[in-house]
Fold:
Amino acid sequence: MWRQARWDEKLILEMERYTAQGPSIPYEDQFSDIEVKIPSTIARVKPPSIPSLSEIEVVRHYTRLSQMSYGVDVGPIPLGSCTMKYNPKIMDLIALDPRVTDLHPLQDEETVQGLLEIIYITERWLSEITGMDRCSFQPPAGSAGELAGAIMIRKYHLDRGEDRDEMLIPDSAHGSNSASAAMAGFKVVRIPTGQDGEVSIEALKAALTPRTAGIMLTNPNTLGIFESRILEISDLVHSSGGLLYYDGANLNGILGIVRPGDMGFDIVHLNLHKTFATPHGSGGPGGGVVCARGELVDYLPRPLIARQGDRYFWDYECKRCIGMVRAFYGNIVPVIRTFIYISLLGPQGLREVSEVSVINTNYFVKKLMEKPYYEIPYNPEKPRKHEIVVSASKIARETGVTVEDIAKALLDEGLHAPTIYFPLIVSEALMIEFTETEPREVIDSYAEALNRIAEKAYREPSTLKISPRNTAVSRLDSVRANHPKSVAPSYKVYRRIALSTEGFEKK
Structure:
């Protein structure tokens, strides 16, 4: 039986010894004659509380913390829509080279020509992959790329003297689409999904008006279904004067096979931290590259990378652009990782990424459906692309065990839970994406674990209601855990809450 490590580890600042046991600085005497004049108003009244721990104490402290964590280096993280693939270590080695990490955004361009060349080449590759003309690396994350695209659409119509203030968004879309559209000043118009799992063409036709600015969608959609009528959607939206924005969250399902530009999209945002194997979150940062074609290129955030002869530089010329969406040039380390990733794979390798991710998904579906517990909503006979959404509504209805209980029980199996309760159009949804990096044995074990949990739901439903029991932290009170006074944004806050009688159940 799997057990997660559970250490009652103190914060390093709570370790009470502040002795001189730490490593000494052999050259500190060289600076003893340097006079530093610090104004008394800001000078410390006492030395900082920095524990002088030995090397082995520091190593053990952080190793124990890592043992209470779960990441893709430990096991699969099949979060549907997030594309949490394994990140090759060679990319860490290169991207964390001091010649990259020690650069400063204000240093002269002539001193970073090699880096600018990498960015330039990467832009040409991403433009070709998406079927766009130019790309901006400004947005620091996917949500920022979405917002940039929505603002571009807004400014494009205003420049044409058209007050188009409605953005069409399928009801299966990522929630950030609606948020980005609203932040850009649009009214969100919901387009329902048909029984085949695709955008309802009739509903789309009914929603198109002279106020339609465009449509934001991803293809394949969040159900893992390819929008087979995308060319018709493109013709309808364009004929009404609107634009097509592509949410790149699901590009992993079509990479190297079909391009958004060939489907009729005008603007594309990419998640470098999904498709191109840059780590998410604290392993990041992310990259939300936004690309455009035709006259929409004029609206891309500046600066854009440019080349003149053998010299590379940032082009700040902005006649109609939306300006900057963050300071400087965006997050450059994810661009370097992307460059390495594409270089290693090449065109055929990129295509194979999608082919294997699709095979993995459909193999998983076959294994899971060997037992009669889960259901596939919306056109269950149709093969999926990079991800699958299954429903546990039958289990919930017949046993009272919800998809949240199933997710918690997966943790007891030593497996990371998938995305749950999304998309909202599926009752008791589990959204699962293995990507191309997971071997068959992992997919087999995950399907077997889900079916084993379902069987237990019918035999001993009460035991699933108290899962997880094998993890460092037991089940949270969902209401308290989401309350501002209980949320744990850091390990320091977590310890304060975990050791109290509120927020977390103390073992």
Summary: The chain has four domains: 1-69, 111-345, 350-481, 482-507.
